[in-house]
Recover the amino acids of this structure.
């Protein structure tokens, strides 16, 4: 598909509700898409991630999509452990499906609405202010593509002073059993003052046709709120995605994210944390365990706008076979963001001759009283450690597995909900023991 | 038990061992001494199977089997144990789980049932008492943040758990204070019996006072240039290596 295909499609939609708030955001998005076009490798931000192949397929998307035909039981493929006690938001082919979703927290704690409904009701001002805020940071065509076709999006409000005792799981299912699918889910999550919430997003594709998920989640965090955000990517090779999570800490707050990438085709993650209030704290963790031909690109941004903020980032990768990985960690310290503490580390283990990692720290510092550090390593398993284990009678493949698991452990330990942690641990153990050599 | 015949070994093209012959029988304690760079630790590494070392000539039989043909893990499971001069820190792998895996690997190799949790704990408690090692040390990651003495004690603890036939102690006494040395040496002493053997690599007399070797060998330039009884070690302690070096250099020159 190329730009003119999307253009044609957008023109057809133009008639629907041009004056509405969301219609306006869509048009602005389309304007950017039209101007920027779809990114190629010539674009610095996409230098190591070639989306050419992803866009070579003819996808069904937006109004061309068949109506949701999933039975509730079919959602089970994606359900995360502890779902019986969780709030579950289900997207199918990029559209929020209220029928399949289950909100278990009471209404005075948590509101989940179709974005269109929220925009025409009491949340109009909130949405006017915050919807599309990520566009100022990601000016490429793929991001604008999502915005151009915002449809079936969701709005979430975690109410003031509410510490949710149930996590909020967001499932993205694409039904690629009949045709190639482009899913473009969109969420706006507003976490109010003194609220606390654990969010987890995960993805699944049904069927063997090509699927491209272009997801955007915007999270707005108010004063004294605490947000944990987990992303688990364990898809099949026919599923590619650009997964954007844009977090604005507009009040003094804490955010803790863990991104785990295990399987898929072409994967690009954009994780932005914008620290817009003094005293913000952000922890960004990531683990990518790649094999086959999977490509995973983690682009992160810790943007220190205000003084006295802390960002702490650790991403770790294990790459096998022909897998390729990209880590691009940007730390921005704006003028006036004094007393910034910003730390970043990226560590990689390559298990095969053909695996590749491109890792790039990117620090832009415009304040003079700051503490920033960054570092990256790329290497093989520690031969001394391997020998030590073998010298005690542990066979080489088992010793390798032990060491790799240990390498992944400090990211795994950052997944705070115990059920989620053991779920991911099992996925990792399975993977490592299946790829023993 | 162990028979080393004319071993030559090199690392990165550099010849370190130049024809070592050594035979160790069950129940014996041998000590290898020698100046820095004489090849002592290389010999230990070659026996344990470190892959960076290339054996260019010679053979080693261990319990009637060709040792050099075996992978390091198989050597361990056959009953060879190297106590490392520098034990490796492995963050993220718990010491207890590691030792349990090692014990059960060996049992499986020898056709025995794996130990259940209760018998394993019982065995561990007994050996811990013997070496005065603290439980808290074993619940930590392997050697992570251990002091020099704790690392060495952990080596001997593993040795006690695995009950090897041949114990190779590579500079076990370095980094140990007098009290720790006594505990470790007493521990090793208790592991001795007529079925196993010990090969001690050391610079000093201290450990030998405790372990009373049957034979002492002096390694120099990758060869054993002198062998004797424990009195040889005392002599070396007194006079240093110079005399032996001189004799050996003279012979080489001829």
């Amino acid at each position: 598909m190329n730009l003119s295909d999307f253009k044609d499609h957008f023109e057809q939609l133009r008639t629907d509700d041009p004056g509405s708030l969301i219609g306006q955001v869509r048009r602005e998005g389309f304007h950017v898409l039209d101007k920027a076009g779809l990114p190629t490798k010539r674009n610095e931000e996409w230098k190591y991630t070639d989306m050419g192949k992803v866009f070579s397929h003819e996808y069904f998307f937006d109004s061309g999509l068949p109506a949701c035909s999933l039975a509730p039981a079919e959602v089970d493929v994606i359900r995360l452990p502890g779902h019986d006690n969780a709030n579950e938001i289900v997207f199918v082919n990029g559209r929020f499906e209220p029928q399949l979703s289950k909100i278990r927290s009471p209404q005075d704690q948590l509101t989940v609405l179709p974005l269109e409904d929220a925009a025409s009701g009491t949340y109009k001002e909130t949405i006017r202010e915050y919807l599309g805020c990520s566009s100022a940071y990601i000016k490429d065509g793929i991001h604008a593509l999502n915005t151009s076709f915002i449809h079936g999006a969701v709005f979430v409000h975690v109410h003031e002073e509410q510490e949710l005792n149930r996590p909020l799981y967001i499932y993205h299912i694409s039904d690629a059993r009949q045709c190639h699918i482009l899913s473009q889910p969109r969420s706006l999550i507003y976490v109010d003052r003194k609220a606390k919430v654990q969010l987890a997003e995960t993805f699944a594709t049904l069927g063997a046709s090509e699927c491209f998920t272009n997801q955007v989640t915007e999270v707005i965090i108010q004063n004294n709120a605490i947000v944990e955000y987990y992303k688990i990517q364990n898809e099949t090779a026919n599923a590619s995605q650009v997964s954007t999570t844009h977090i604005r800490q507009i009040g003094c707050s804490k955010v803790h994210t863990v991104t785990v990438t295990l399987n898929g085709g072409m994967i690009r993650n954009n994780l932005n944390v914008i620290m817009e209030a003094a005293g913000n704290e952000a922890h960004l963790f990531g683990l990518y365990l790649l094999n086959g031909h999977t490509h995973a690109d983690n682009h992160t941004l810790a943007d220190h706008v205000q003084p006295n903020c802390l960002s702490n980032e650790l991403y770790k990768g294990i790459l096998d076979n022909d897998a390729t990985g990209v880590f691009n960690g940007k730390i921005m310290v704006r003028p006036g963001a004094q007393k910034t503490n910003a730390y970043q580390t990226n560590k990689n283990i390559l298990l095969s001759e053909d695996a590749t990692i491109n890792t790039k720290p990117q620090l832009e510092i415009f304040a003079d009283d700051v503490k920033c550090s960054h570092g990256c390593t790329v290497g093989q398993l520690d031969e001394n450690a391997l020998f030590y284990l073998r010298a005690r009678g542990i066979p080489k493949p088992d010793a390798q597995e032990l060491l790799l698991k240990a390498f992944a452990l400090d990211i795994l330990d950052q997944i705070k909900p115990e059920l989620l942690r053991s779920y991911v641990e099992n996925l990792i153990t399975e993977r490592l023991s299946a790829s023993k050599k | 038990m162990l028979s080393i015949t004319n071993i030559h070994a090199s690392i990165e093209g550099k010849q370190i061992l130049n024809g070592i012959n050594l035979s160790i029988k069950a129940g014996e304690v041998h000590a290898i001494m020698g100046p820095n760079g004489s090849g002592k630790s290389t010999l230990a590494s070659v026996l344990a199977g470190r892959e960076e070392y290339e054996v260019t000539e010679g053979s080693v039989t261990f319990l009637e089997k060709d040792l050099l043909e075996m992978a390091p893990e198989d050597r361990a499971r056959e009953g060879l144990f190297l106590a490392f001069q520098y034990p490796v820190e492995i963050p993220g792998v718990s010491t207890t789980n590691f030792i349990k895996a090692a014990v059960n690997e060996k049992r499986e190799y020898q056709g025995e049932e794996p130990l259940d949790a209760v018998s394993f704990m019982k065995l561990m408690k007994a050996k811990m008492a013997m070496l005065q090692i603290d439980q808290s040390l074993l619940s930590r990651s392997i050697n992570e943040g251990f002091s020099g003495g704790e690392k060495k004690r952990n080596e001997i603890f593993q040795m006690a758990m695995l009950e090897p036939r041949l114990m190779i102690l590579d500079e076990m006494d370095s980094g140990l204070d007098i009290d720790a040395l006594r505990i470790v040496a007493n521990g090793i002493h208790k592991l001795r019996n007529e079925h196993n053997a010990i090969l001690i690599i050391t610079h000093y007399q201290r450990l030998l006072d405790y372990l009373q070797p049957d034979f002492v060998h002096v390694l120099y330039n990758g060869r054993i240039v002198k062998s004797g009884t424990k009195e040889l070690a005392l002599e070396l302690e007194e006079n240093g290596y110079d005399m032996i070096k001189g004799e050996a250099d003279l012979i080489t020159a001829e």
The longest helix of chain B spans residues 95-109. Chain B has one domain: 2-253.
